[in-house]
Amino acid sequence: MSAPVQESMPGVAVTPTSGGVRLVEVGPRDGLQNERVRLSVRDRVTMVTRLMDAGLRDIEVGSFVSPRWIPQMAQTREVLEQLPRREGVRHWVLVPNARGLEDALAAGATHLAVFVSSSETHNQRNLNRTIDESLEDVRAVCRRAREAGCELRGYISTVFGCPWEGAIPFDRVLRLGEALRDVGCSQISFGDTTGMGHPTQVRASMARVLQHFEVEQVALHLHDTRGLALTNALMGWEVGVRTFDGSVGGMGGCPYAAGASGNVGTEDLVHLFSTMGIETGVDLGALGAVARWLEEVHGATLRSPYFRYVLSQRGS
Amino acid sequence: MSAPVQESMPGVAVTPTSGGVRLVEVGPRDGLQNERVRLSVRDRVTMVTRLMDAGLRDIEVGSFVSPRWIPQMAQTREVLEQLPRREGVRHWVLVPNARGLEDALAAGATHLAVFVSSSETHNQRNLNRTIDESLEDVRAVCRRAREAGCELRGYISTVFGCPWEGAIPFDRVLRLGEALRDVGCSQISFGDTTGMGHPTQVRASMARVLQHFEVEQVALHLHDTRGLALTNALMGWEVGVRTFDGSVGGMGGCPYAAGASGNVGTEDLVHLFSTMGIETGVDLGALGAVARWLEEVHGATLRSPYFRYVLSQRGS
Questions:
Q1: What is the rounded distance in angstroms from the CA atom of residue B95 to the CA atom of residue B257?
Q2: For residues B196-220, b (16+ Cβ closer than 10 Å) or e, as one string?
Q3: CB within 8 Å: B12 and A164
Q4: End-to-end Cα, chain A, rounded Å
Q5: Cβ neighbours of B306 in A, within 8 Å
Q6: What are phi and psi of A157, to 5 degrees?
Q7: Which residues of A are catalytic?
Q8: Are B137 and B123 in contact (CB under 8 A)?
Q9: Which residues on A lie below 8 Å from B304 (Cβ)?
Q10: Binary contact (A160, B10; C-beta < 8 A)
Q11: What is the DSSP letter of A84?
Q12: Residue A168: which of B10, B230, B311 has the nearest Cβ?
């Protein structure tokens, strides 16, 4: 059966919002590294190029970790070298340690992301270090990166809950954020790594964050593991967050919830904000074409609800 | 890999909310009638009984429509007759016309639902009548049902947008709601039939509804077609809606979006509200067991994000 489904937004008038939101596309790194699908250097370059074509201006294109840890991210140097540069587009790469930093600098990276967990157990399991030890490593990496003229972004993991520790004291999250800012991170991305955040919590937490940080310094990194990512994005937006990380098609996820949704889909964020009259600068059609290519050519299973909806319309 | 994922809600303290929400389970009718899976009378009775066991107090158990239209709903009389009665539990049945009403009354139904669309095109295609003609039919059905001592519930379809007409003038929706109230419907369920609603719209629309109706008279019936059902539920709740329709496992949907999500999952509503400290009276574990039974025994494909998350935890 066919119905001329139209995507203009009906009903009560929406108050247009001045100013848009900034989306940071993490699919080529956080997405790919948690999927079984393996992309060649050439395909990774194609993916990032198409994401730029869709209007994304901040894209995390890979990481400089050991290929023994994360084989999907091997050859990030080649990806970075082959990517076309465009004015106003930032290609971010993740660096876990001093070794990764030197590799990133040798590859010509100029936008680096560092990370630390707000859960001792998660940090210990992920990095085999205490939070304080990791923070020392991050400080050294950031100092050297700043000297090399790089821009820095900091991730804090598990800020809305940890699978092992449960609740994380939010004072600790704020202290970590301030430590990352002090060592030169221009933006801190507050990560709901396993999708345990919920709307009243995210609203209250991000309101606190924005008492301590400028709006440009704050990003919200959501996962849709339990289906609450968009309610959390909405609450973050309501209290003033204006930067959101997303992954095309909702690619990525959490090794402890195979089959559940992963990172919040970039198209889900674009769609949500578009219904609210909030500009993202991203073309939903072009973004959907990237997701289709990942699914149909490369065999990814993408769980973004909006992507699945768009697919459902193709056959009708 | 296994992680002791814990479901207590971490982070910033949530303000406990006095008073809960009332959930109306529509899976055995709105869910089943839009799925390929066919349940026998015995299995439909089992399904409703298990939903009662899970704590649901309002359950739509079937409809009295022609089995040529909707074969899944044939033998609703037998379902109703075989269902165990429990104090405080209401078994609702849908009646589309005078013939259906007589069948329902003959089967001993005491809680009846009637419906009309707020889109002329949708009403015409669905019922082959103008909205005014349908409203006349509904008036006659309601008059007779009230004489027979029945309680009545009214559905209005496509209130946040129609696939053919796009935006629906919300004044028309309010007039239809008042007409249904005037003929004796104790509650009006405002339906986002094809999941076109979005959060700012739902917030503004339901705030208007609650200027015209008592809170007990209002329900929100959401579909997750484009992934916005929970953001819409949250906005509805924020402006005062306290009754929500849901379908176990997210069963059901829309014939124009095969493969997309359908009705909002009852478990997604229960989970969302539980994170906010809002009581629903429904046991998530028992509800999930019904969804697993529908999927594993009966071959339904259930898209409720929370159900999929719970499934992902079984193998870990």
A1: 25
A2: bbbbbbbbbbbbbbbeebeeebbbb
A3: no
A4: 6
A5: 226-227
A6: -90, 160
A7: 254
A8: no
A9: 227
A10: yes
A11: P
A12: B10
pLDDT by residue, tens only, chain B of 316 residues: 334 333 333 333 334 445 899 999 999 999 999 888 899 999 999 999 999 999 999 999 999 998 888 889 999 999 999 999 999 999 999 999 999 999 999 999 999 999 999 999 999 998 899 999 999 999 999 999 999 999 999 999 999 999 999 999 999 999 999 999 999 999 999 999 999 999 999 999 999 999 999 999 999 999 999 999 999 999 999 999 999 999 999 999 776 677 778 999 999 999 999 999 999 999 999 999 999 999 999 998 899 999 999 999 886 4
* ipTM of the complex model: 0.92
Reported as a single tens digit per residue, the pLDDT across A206-250 is: 999 999 999 999 999 999 999 999 999 999 999 999 999 999 999
Q: What angle do helix axes A199-212 and A229-238 make, rounded to 10 degrees?
A: 40
Per-residue HEC secondary structure of A190-230 comes to: EECCCCCCCHHHHHHHHHHHHHHCCHHHEEEECECCCCCHH
CB contact under 8 A, B306 and A258: no
For residue B185, give the H/E element and its range.
Answer: strand B185-191
Does B1 sit within 8 Å of A309, measured CB to CB?
no
Task: Indicate the burial class of B128 (C-beta count within 10 angstroms; 0-12, 13-18, 19 or more).
Answer: exposed
Residues in chain A: 316
Length of chain B as a residue count:
316
Closest CA to A209 of B309, B96, B4, B12: B12
CB contact under 8 A, A163 and B3: yes
pTM of the model as a whole: 0.93
B contact test, residue of A9, A14, A162, A192 with most B CBs within 10 A: A9
Judging contacts by C-beta atoms under 8 Å, the chain B residues touching residue A124 are none
Which residues, in sequence order, are CB contacts of B175 under 8 Å at separation 6+?
A: none
Residues 6+ apart with CB under 8 A from A297: none
* Number of separate helices (H) and strands (E) present in chain A: 11, 8
Name the residue among B11, B204, B305 with its Cβ closest to that of A201: B11
For residue A22, the SS3 value is strand
> CA of B25: how far to CAs of A311, B181, B247, in Å?
28, 21, 6
Residues A214, A153, A279: CA angle, nearest 5 degrees: 60
